[in-house]
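Usage example:
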Amino acid sequence: MTPRELLKDAGLRITAPRLAVLEWLADHPHATADQVAEGVRARLGAVSTQAVYDVLNACARTGLLRRIEPAGHPARYETRIGDNHHHLVCRRCGRTEDVDCVHGAAPCLEPSATGGFTVDEAEVLFWGLCPDCRTATKELQA
Amino acid sequence: MTPRELLKDAGLRITAPRLAVLEWLADHPHATADQVAEGVRARLGAVSTQAVYDVLNACARTGLLRRIEPAGHPARYETRIGDNHHHLVCRRCGRTEDVDCVHGAAPCLEPSATGGFTVDEAEVLFWGLCPDCRTATKELQA
DNA sequence: TCGTTTTCTTGACTGATTCCAGAAAGCATG
DNA sequence: CATGCTTTCTGGAATCAGTCAAGAAAACGA
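Running the assembly step on the lines above writes:
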């Protein structure tokens, strides 16, 4: 589906900032709001920060985008949705990559005891160092 | 081990704020920095916010405390460490509860492809609504 | 084309957390 | 049990990601 169709189906108005955000994000997964704003401005010229946040929030709310919020790092967004995959996050730079599920379909999706909670999502985050940061850290220590 | 011994073994100086934080947190798991500060002040009198953050960071760094940072909520701390258990977080109020691992020892600890990352932790967070917030939400809708 | 509704702009604001400089402990040593 | 070095605490300013609010501008159903 094109971004245009996606917006329409989600009941959102079709605007230049929205199209630009969705298109740019399709080519640059796991980008931060800041990076999205930069990318969108490169295409459209001036776009307010607020507009970018509005678009990201509206799309995340309607399921067009998925938001990942790794502890200690700004949120990142991706257009790959619908398949519950997980993420690999670099502790140092926040770089994020997709990880498909190991144990088949839905791993760890069932907590052993919900304590009365109504669970609607299981989030799995793998923490570590990306290749670049590993190299950088080693050099620091040497 | 007493808080005193824990600090000593970790190579941290034994100070009133540190003892108070560890003791209070042992009785109040999953507390936020704010709640910890309040609890500590109730015992010791004036303690700066900064001191509380310093203690929490120092203890988290040396492994005496575990920090949980649910997206959109302030960080929470707990003294239950060493057994890689997971958490159940309420989307609405941030209330956090422990969840033991379903699939035996280390579930989902192995991503299918690390993409060059060095993984050192697998974090699993279950999102949902706690009993109180579920009730509150229902009432709102009614 | 019009009027309603949503979205965008600008700018101020918030909440959690960190940075900084100096004062006040802790503790290994003599 | 003094001494001095080092870590920690205080107080206050600053940061950062993100939100709130009011008015202007654009979308789209009729």
